[in-house]
Structures are given as C-alpha cells and as structure tokens.
Amino acid sequence: MLAASTRTRQLNVTCDSSVDREVFLHYSLIPSLLIILVLSFLQRREHRRQRDGTFYLLGDHFGIIMPLDFVGTFSNRWSYGVAFGATANKVMFLFSEGYQPLIVPQWAQAFVLLIGGIEVGLSYFPFFACLSSEFRLVSSILGFSYSLTWFVVTILQIAQCPHGQLLGRFETLIFYWPSLMCLGFLLGRFLHMFLKALPIRLGLEPQAEEKSLLEAHQAEHVKRLLSKPRPQEKGKSWFQTRVYDWDPCFQFPSRMIGTLVLASICLYLFIVIEFCVFLLVRDKLDMFEDLLQSYLAHMNETGTSAPVLLQVKELISVTKGVWVVTIFPASLTCVSYLFHILACYRKHMKRLWAGDKDFLPQNFQSPSSAASVVAIARYSGWQIAYILWGYLIIHVVQSLCGVMLMYSLVLPILHHQGLEMLRGLGLGVLTVSVVVGIMILQVWIAGRFFLQPKLSAADKQKPLALHNRRAFHNFNYFLFFYNVLLGLGACLARLLISCLLGTWLIARIDRTIMQSGYERADMGFSAWVGMLFVDHYHTNPVLVSFCHILITSHRDRKLQKTTKYWYLNQSAGPRFSARAQTRWLLLQTLINNPRLITLRKSKADHSSRESTQSLPTCSDC
C-alpha cells in the first residue's frame, strides 16, 4: 500500500515544461520596464524644476507613477486585491527563502532577499500601474497584454506538467489555480476598462469628471455626524448583532482588501505545502512502522522491549491522525482572524475619529511620526507572515491538545480501561473542585464577617473597611501556610493560560500579547498602531471634508474671477451677511447635537479674559 501511494504521487517526475515561471520572472522584467517607461512618459510632472540643457527635450514628461495609493484609495479595491492575489505564489516562494538569484555568504542573505523582493515587485508592477493610471485606454491595452502573457505562461506550465512528486495528480493545478483565477479576473478588468475608455476617446461619450477628493462614504459619514442621532434599529439579525454589521458610511482602503486577499491565498498555499511535507513525513513514519512490525514479528512480541515498541507505534498512529484532523480547525481559526482583524480595524478607526484613544496602551497614544510612516509599509507584509506562522503554531498546539485528549479519554476506552479512566477523571475533577471551592469560601467568609455593613441600601457592595479585626488576623495567619501551596498551583495555571492565550492569539496583530508596560517589544502591534494613526490622519472624513470644502471654494472663486463680467452674474435676490449665515448654521448644529452646548465657551469666560488682558501690567506702572 505504501509503494502504491508513493507511485501515485511520483507521476511526471521528469516532466520538462517549455516555459518555467521562475525563469520567465527574470525575462518579464523587460516588458515590465517598457510598460513603466510608456506610462511614465504619459504621466505629466506637476512641479517642474528649472530645466537645464540635459532635460530640456523631456519637457514635463516622465513623471513618477505609483502602483496604488496605500492610504487613501477606495476605488477599484477588489481589482487591486486580485492583483495582489496574482503575486501569491511568488510571495510564498520569498517566504520560504527559496528565491535566491545570487549566491552570497550567510550574513548577506538579507540583501539577497531584498533584491529578490524588489525583482518580484518590479515584475508585477505593471498590474497595479495600469489599474491606477489616468490614461485608461493605453493602460488597459498594456495591462491586458501583460496579464495575457502571464496567463498563457501559467496555462502552459499547468498543461505540460500537471502532476508532481508530492501530491501526485494535478499538483501544479492545485498550487497555481488561485493565481490563474486572479489573472483571469485582471484580463476581464482590463477589457472592461478598454470598452469604457474607447467611446470616450472616440468622442462618443463625454469625458469622465475629475475625481473628487471627498469620497461618497466619507460625505455620508459627515452628514450622519451633523444630523440628529437616530434610534437604534431593533430588527437586526443575530449575525449583525454578534458578528458584523455592515456600515454604508465606512469603506476599507485598498491596502486592507489586498492584504485580505493575499493573506487568504498565501494561507491556502501554506496549508497545501504543509500537507505535502506531512505526506513525506508520513511515508518515513510508515517505513519506520514497517521496521517495527518486522522486528516485533521476529521477536514474536515476547521481548522486553515489545511493549515499548507497541506504544511507540501507537503514538505514531495517533499523531498522524490528530495532525490531519486538526488541519481544519487551525485553518478555520486563521481565516476567522482575517475577517476579525477587518472588524477591529473599523472599530479602532471609528474610535480614533471620535477622539477616543483609551483602547490603546498609554505609551502608544502618541506614536512617532517616522515610525508610523514605516508601519504603513510594514503592516501588510507582517500581517501575512503573522497569519502563516500563527497557523503553524496553532496547528502544533491543537495537535498536542488532541494527542493529550486521545491518551486521556479515547485510548483508555479502546483498551477497555474506561472505568479506570472515569475514576481518574473523577478524582481530578473532585480535587480541582475542592481547591476552587476553598478559594470561593475564602471570598465568602471575607465578605460576610470581615467587612463593615453597607452605608446605604442602594450600594452594590460593602465598603472596603475591615470589621472583626482580631478574627481577621487569625484567619489570615492560619491560611498563610495553605496559600503558599495554593500559590504553586496558581503559578502553574498562570503559566499555562499565558502559553495557551499567547499561542492562540499569535496571529492577531491587532492586539498585543505582551504584559502591560512591555507592549513596545511587540513589533507587530507597533506596526498596527502606526498604521492606524497614518490612516486616521489622512482619511479622517471630517478633515477630508474640510479640505474638500476649501479646495472647491478656492477653485470656484478662482474660476469666477477669471470669467469676464463675473460681477454681472451675481444674483439680485436678498443678500445675507456672513455673520448671520454663520449664526444660523451654528444654531442648526447645536439643535442637532445638544451635547455640544456644554462644550461651548461662555460669555462670562470671554469677558473675564478680556478684562484680564485690559488690566495694567507692572511695566505700565
């Protein structure tokens, strides 16, 4: 059976594909650089320096193009996310440190990985640049051609070498179908861009309006703030109240959507790779079990080492089964973390918008500006790495718990030792119950006999004032020696709970697993907080709305003054002073938000401040 399974997985071992994606990655830099040059030539430079003779012929061409706005992009979010998903295989290759274009000493491996990351980023740069370019017709043609090239290369590799050494049949398809789906989506997206840009280019449709600084959901958020608070809806489902409630006035930026898509695909690939490694280890363990079986048959199971060998064989069998079973709960935990992180991002951003920083540790409420800018670049990559390593750690811990569960509950029943198992389990539960009962009894005695009565019947608990001091000191003295022994168990329980929570939450970058005062040592949480503050300062709907009003009003005044006889277009209707309009808007705002009345500056404070300023100083005397 082992030989048959090994043969099934070793199909097409010597398969030679005409196109190798790893080699094609190096050659793809040539068309990638050409596309970047074309888009850079079309991009106009907004701020030109004094031109010298060298750059005189360039004019204002060859502006800097960017793949996407990592802070304030809310359009084409899923297109950018799918473009990130197309890079998943190469990201996993970098994660495994298998992509090393140069042979260098061990101390220089970090530079090699940096060069490899830059090469992968440059190879996939045209996907993002063509999606974000303002020249939709040219960028759609270039993006479609480049995506089609990668799509054809992937199809050829799957078709020519569909099988592999690890999973056997359709191994290549199992590894590359997510990237294939993402490339197919990008082909459709670029085709859609071309069909929309062509009529505009031919003059059949009007030119699209200039993109506004203020997004629609941000404007709706500001309108909600300025309107009367609505009563909470009572008809919400269980999913909306307990899991997630969609908010039309909030949208996740493209960076978060791209991180979600790429992390999901990388997690899938990581699970597949882990399963392949498990198959290899399982084959080795099967061979070892065959050797044990032959040795036991040779000894006729009568030797002194026979029971030990049988236990080793049973341990191997249990471990293999538990490892396979725990793949699903470990992967489900990490997938739930991905969506929970999005929910926490929305909750934290809304609290920052409201000026609430209490959910952050004290030393994180004013992070460094430079560290925050670096955090916005680190977050996505670190989040993916945390999810992958977190899955592996969670899987190992769940497997250990599963093995313990098998040896404590399942195997005794299979070995017809159920009564002994129940007896030991009952003794353990009884012991823990007695210890917990004594702890609860101490609290009850302290509250019943050693605290003074309530000052008022409406008080929830008794005041922290000692009563019956002599009895209390005797109570404290005799329990001192018992609590020393109890403290040993409490210390072990603290260690066990800390290990379980730390390993269970290791993939959660949105919360620290360090003790209070040591949060700075958690670099992942530092990246999360820095990323939150960058988004808070650059995408706050109130701030963006204010900037939008300033820009549009300045543009309207400038356009009005450049229009000839602009003063003749003034309305002949009733005119109101700016002060009256301001007071009317202030009244409307205070009516809709009564809590702001208490925050207003009173006239008495204003007059007292003026009188203080008018008093003569010593220099006047």
Could you please describe the fold and organization of this structure?
There is one protein chain. This protein is an all-alpha fold and 621 residues long. It has 21 helices and no strands. The chain has helices at 2-9, 21-27, 29-42, 77-86, 88-95, 109-123, 125-132, 136-160, 171-201, 216-226, 238-242, 254-299, 306-325, 327-353, 369-414, 418-449, 469-504, 523-539, 541-562, 578-592, 603-614. The model is unreliable at 1-5 and 612-621 (pLDDT under 50).
Q: Strand portion, in percent? A: under 5%
Number of strands: 0
Helix content: 55-70%
Gyration radius from CA atoms, angstroms: 34 Å
Distance between the termini: 108 Å
Largest sheet: none
The stretches of 5 or more residues where confidence is low (pLDDT under 50) are 1-5, 612-621
Shape: flat
- Class derived from helix and strand content: mainly alpha
Mean pLDDT: 81
The SSE order reads: HHHHHHHHHHHHHHHHHHHHH
| Oligomerization status of the protein chains | single chain
Number of helices: 21
Keywords:
621 residues; disordered N terminus; disordered C terminus
Structure described in brief:
The chain is built from 21 helices and no strands.
Secondary structure layout plus pairing:
Elements (H helix, E strand, L loop, with lengths): L1 H8 L11 H7 L1 H14 L34 H10 L1 H8 L13 H15 L1 H8 L3 H25 L10 H31 L14 H11 L11 H5 L11 H46 L6 H20 L1 H27 L15 H46 L3 H32 L19 H36 L18 H17 L1 H22 L15 H15 L10 H12 L7
Membrane topology: Multi-pass membrane protein
Subcellular location: Cell membrane
Protein name: Stimulated by retinoic acid gene 6 protein-like
